[in-house]
Design goal:
The chain has 6 helices and 14 strands. By secondary structure, the protein is α/β, with parallel strands linked by helices. Keywords: Acetylation, Dioxygenase, Hydrolase, Iron, Metal-binding, Oxidoreductase, Transit peptide. Belongs to the metallo-beta-lactamase superfamily. Glyoxalase II family.
């Protein structure tokens, strides 16, 4: 398996490139509009073909590049089926995994940050990875105060689904704000200050109720744009748009 962790600094978002060595097919998990050129250059450098983009949820802090990448490369757009997005090509669910070459992405419905949030588990070459989006972060978790978020749902998702994965499963989060890259299920169970084994459901409710976070700066543009898979020329400011003239057959010029 070919694997790269890519970072967008404005929203501190991780995008993950996962490729199959045997077929050359690849998927980008949670791609960001501002990094289309970088992502395509990396795909080209590795000799891969982008087969899918895959979203963990409807993001509020950045606009996805899913539709733009589909236009430029012919890839398909995949997202949780329960989002019921007309712009998506494929809906993923717990009983509908996504196969990319010889790699299988097994979906886990993990509501709480949003009500349709999904994580994706990949087991390959004796290494198990889980891409947790905003459900579980390194020493933290996503907020639960908008987009039908709910602290009880998130507590249950993490404790009953994510924390029941093998201890050595590598956890790759959707964001990190302190330049950290990866953790493990065991590490989060032992020391996560919000959701670790020493915290009760009541503890978690209190923690989340007192975060007092400002809303994401781009939420008013990002949420409606992402419900259209990022096909959002009429809703996103000009500075966030890309020109297709920069690309030839999906490869940066």
């Amino acid at each position: 398996m070919i694997f790269r962790q890519l970072f967008e600094p404005e929203s501190s978002t991780y995008t993950y490139l996962v490729g199959c060595r045997e077929t050359g097919d690849a998927v980008l998990i949670d791609p960001v509009m501002e990094t289309v050129e970088r992502d395509l250059a990396e795909i080209q450098r590795l000799g891969l073909r982008l087969a899918y983009t895959l979203e963990t949820h409807i993001h509020a802090d950045h606009v996805t590049s899913a539709c733009r990448l589909r236009t430029l490369t012919g890839c398909q757009v995949a997202c949780p089926a329960m989002e019921d997005l007309p712009c998506a090509d494929i809906g993923i669910a717990e009983d509908r995994p996504l196969a990319v070459g010889g790699i299988v992405f097994r979906a886990l419905h993990t509501p709480g940050h949003t009500d349709t949030h999904h994580c994706y588990v990949v087991g390959r070459e004796d290494i198990s990875r889980v891409f947790t989006g905003d459900a579980l972060l390194i020493d933290g978790c996503g907020r639960t105060d908008f987009q039908n978020g709910d602290p009880d749902d998130l507590f249950r998702s993490v404790r009953e689904k994510l924390f029941t994965l093998p201890d050595d499963t590598l956890v790759y989060p959707g964001h990190d704000y302190q330049h950290r890259h990866v953790t493990t299920i065991l590490q989060e169970r032992e020391r996560n200050p919000r959701l670790g084994d020493d915290k009760s459901r009541d503890d978690f409710r209190e923690i989340m109720a007192n975060l007092d976070l400002p809303y994401p700066k781009k939420i008013n543009a990002a949420v409606p744009a992402n419900r259209r898979c990022g096909d959002c020329r009429d809703q996103v400011p000009e500075a966030h748009r890309l020109s297709d003239e920069k690309f030839v057959q999906g490869v940066p010029s």
